[in-house]
Amino acid sequence: MRAAQAALSFDAQPRHVETARRVTAAVLGEAGVRDSDTIGTVQLLVSEIVTNAIVHGDANSVSFRITCDTAGEALIEVDDHSSGAPEVRDAGPEDEGGRGMRLVTYFARDWGRKGTCTWCTVPVGPVTG
């Protein structure tokens, strides 16, 4: 594994979720992650946390950072610059939303909130190759 990272800020618009997903794939590739399931899982978590920040955050902008370390762990940080905290909800079968943080809880090694930033860690290695 190689260390890799990227950070960007963008206006709180849903179109930027895809940008964060593309940046995530690029950083994971630079770090040496080749497993498509691992890349997809990390992209899913990025999508959920960034979408949560856009939909529920009070600010006009969102800051996103992804860092992969040499030990095979990715750290996702999304700062929505607002005081609200994400909630793990029990969405019903007819609910259109409310599952994002449940997915983060399930797939992430750990997650939390520090100040206005929601973060999670995800194992991405070791990788051969």
Would you mind describing this structure in some detail?
This protein has 129 residues and is of the alpha+beta class. Helices cover 35% and strands 27% of the residues. Strands 1-2-3-5-4 form a five-stranded antiparallel sheet, with helices on one face. Strand 2 (61-68) and strand 3 (73-79) form a beta hairpin. Helix 1 packs antiparallel against helix 2 (36-56) and helix 2 (36-56) packs antiparallel against helix 3. It is globular, with a radius of gyration of 14 Å. The model has no long low-confidence stretch (mean pLDDT 88).
Explain the layout of strands and helices.
Blueprint lengths: L3 E8 L4 H16 L4 H21 L4 E8 L4 E7 L20 H8 L2 E5 L2 E7 L6
Antiparallel strand pairs: 1-2, 2-3, 3-5, 4-5
Helix pairs in contact: 1-2, 2-3
Q: Got a strand count? A: 5
What would the principal axes of the Cα set say about the shape? Answer: globular
Q: Provide the low-confidence segments as ranges.
A: none
Structural class: alpha+beta
Mean pLDDT across all amino acids: 88
Which sequence of strands runs across the widest sheet?
1-2-3-5-4
As a percent range, the share of helical residues equals 25-40%
Spell the H/E element sequence: EHHEEHEE
Please tell me how large the radius of gyration is. 14 Å
